[in-house]
Predict the structure.
Amino acid sequence: MGDAGKKDIVLDYSNMMAQAVGSDHGLLQGELDGLKTRASVAHTRLMELKASGKIGFFTQHEMDTTPIKKYAAKVRESYENFVVLGIGGSALGTIALNQAINHNFIPLLTKRKRNGYPRLFVADNIDPDQFEELLKTLDPKKTLFNVISKSGTTAETMSQFMIVFDMLNRRLKGKWKKKVVVTTDPAKGILREVVNEFKLDSFEVPANVGGRFSVFSAVGLLPLACAGIDIDGLMAGAARMAQRCNEPDIMKNPAYLFSSLMYLSDTTRKKPMLVMMPYSSKMYGIADWFRQLWAESLGKRYDLQKKEVHTGQTPIKALGATDQHSQVQLYVEGPNDKAFCFLHVDKFKTTTEIPHVLEDKAELGYLAGHSLNELIKTEMEGTQYALTVHNRPNMVIHLPELSPYTMGQVIYLFEHATAFAGGLYNVDPFDQPGVEFGKNYAYAMMGRKGYEALRAEIKDKLKNIPSRLL
Amino acid sequence: MGDAGKKDIVLDYSNMMAQAVGSDHGLLQGELDGLKTRASVAHTRLMELKASGKIGFFTQHEMDTTPIKKYAAKVRESYENFVVLGIGGSALGTIALNQAINHNFIPLLTKRKRNGYPRLFVADNIDPDQFEELLKTLDPKKTLFNVISKSGTTAETMSQFMIVFDMLNRRLKGKWKKKVVVTTDPAKGILREVVNEFKLDSFEVPANVGGRFSVFSAVGLLPLACAGIDIDGLMAGAARMAQRCNEPDIMKNPAYLFSSLMYLSDTTRKKPMLVMMPYSSKMYGIADWFRQLWAESLGKRYDLQKKEVHTGQTPIKALGATDQHSQVQLYVEGPNDKAFCFLHVDKFKTTTEIPHVLEDKAELGYLAGHSLNELIKTEMEGTQYALTVHNRPNMVIHLPELSPYTMGQVIYLFEHATAFAGGLYNVDPFDQPGVEFGKNYAYAMMGRKGYEALRAEIKDKLKNIPSRLL
């Protein structure tokens, strides 16, 4: 790999093993070896899904990004603001990568200081007050709205779109069409109909790409390119990790190793929680993106043989060093029911020295001459050490630096790991049947046609629960 | 209570009970009644701590806020930016209440549109890149820095302060002293020394107020008042809830009821996780603030008799409706190992209508004529319904509106509930011994004097763990 090879991310799983935390909580090499048959079956299945093109995330990084980059260049000339209307998989990856790679106070910078790129906003909820505040803050003439929904039926996103559609129509009349770009299914669904009817600009979510695996399609790449991020760098990182993940041996494949460690910790060491804890404010969004991926893919009632199993490890996001002053007390002293994965940036862009001031104070003198970089690194090691001494399994993923190339690796690593974990848990990592339940409730109660019987059934059920208020 | 009485928050715990979710997962009234003896002991202890003044949060809302309001009025005249340097309890409450009550895009508004109040920033981490970005974005002449640490030894905050101290000295020479206001112990510690030596403006954290219970001391009130928030409204809400929490009967005291429900769910129904899920973007920070309170207070190795117990329910923050597209699949179909508490705003400030557009599309027509307000409410009820039908215990705290008065109630409710839960779990809710461990590691490895032996011990211990990298 030459120079790029040096920028590979590295998994340090020393503290997941029995030698570090004891065999009640740590794993034995023999247990990892014991997964080989299952792993081989899971690997074969994934490689089939990849080769057949049934599941798209495996090869998204091979897509031609030229149309997206061209479009982004035009957006840069014309707009001050780029607003994503999207939720879940249509929002989390974009938020995460923008936070990880871009300046974190961009909205406060002048256009020149942000190199002419528009300010990116992601409206991923329907809080009426917050959504109103956003719309009133931005000048609609200078704002491009990117409506993202693969199916076109996502109630939150479509409601936002209807509100924006109406607002733009009233304020800009016929010109509104230039203020909207749609990302949706290539052929099907209501949003594609809207695109065709009004001749709107649009991009495609390939049919073989599910929401939580879609950040490297136009879903994430369009907003990220518009925000000035080097999307080809992301793709190159993903390609590098995809290459590392072709390896069938779980001890040599980073995605398989990650999944195997967490799967065994959950199912054989009673660790139903997985804490994802970057020691980097900029990577907090990655923990949130991962949270959807792991929870929605593995949290399943039925296994592949339709047996009721109720599987799924609960992913928890935490932030170092901040949460040392919030969660670490529980992590170190509470129940030993969690596995931990830290994300560590080996080299930040900045080195922030702690100056030689106030050195006459003994309590501060020891900090002077060090740097924030050393401090945050030492604090992570301190948390690791505290966990390890208290027999709590933990691992670290080291990023040589925080860049599109390393972030591309991280994203692909976790996507492939999640797909593989589906094989270990023996569930379908690509569906989400449980989400339908609440959706149907909303349809019924909002009066959608065809849901009258469900509405009656719900009302009947709720009638039987005694109300208890205080 | 007259009019204010109508603004009481309401706990709806119907779905925590066996009638709603079955007795395998839901509670029986007899079990709540069975807590009465323990509850009475815990109540007596809390009332003693309150009466003796040993624990300060019980009566913080009685403090005289005049000096803070006067100071805030001066800040409003002189500054564009107010930056908190603080972490954990010195940051979380301020972030939460500012987000809940203020406009969420204030930094983008003109000074006139934000009524002349400065923009509030909270620097609660030591990520070198992000901290550098913040400092470079703000004009130091127009910025007031509020350094908050009760002990004055918090490494993260003190490092930030040393960096800011040096930067201000270099750029503003003698004038730097006007750009810093300190909140710390009234008499002890290095920060109080610094205040006295340089004659800095300062406020006090009373000795009887611990970090995670300190938002209604100057720790939270000063930044919040500077950001234009009606702190007397917060105090009035806290006073109202304190009054409700004088009641010894757990069935009539909202704090005791909340704790009892969660304690029984954790210890008798195998719910080691408590998901706090506001259906309001603006209340997401409250879930994060609660997370410290619950985790750090109850996550303990030893009980009051020094027996090793490893207690503590893991608090998890989630956001409705957003996380319906991320976590709800796991919550509904995964292991039944969580209790849920929703936070619901009954009346938002804005009513955002979904307009009658695109009505010819069947998939959208059902939304037209409704509002985002109805949609988010219906979605919460849908999630509740899905959880209840799948036998997962859940409750709702209803806020009549999102205001200082209701937020004051919420804050006090959870503080009092947490203190009471300490009684139920039989642990000290006011200490955090586990945090020392990682701190000492940092001291040793950063070369603080007196920690040489620990440094040697750590190095020796780490030597014995075989390194495993991929």
User: Anything to note?
Assistant: The CA atoms of residues 461 and 467 of chain A lie 13 Å apart. The first strand of chain A starts at residue 10 and ends at 12.
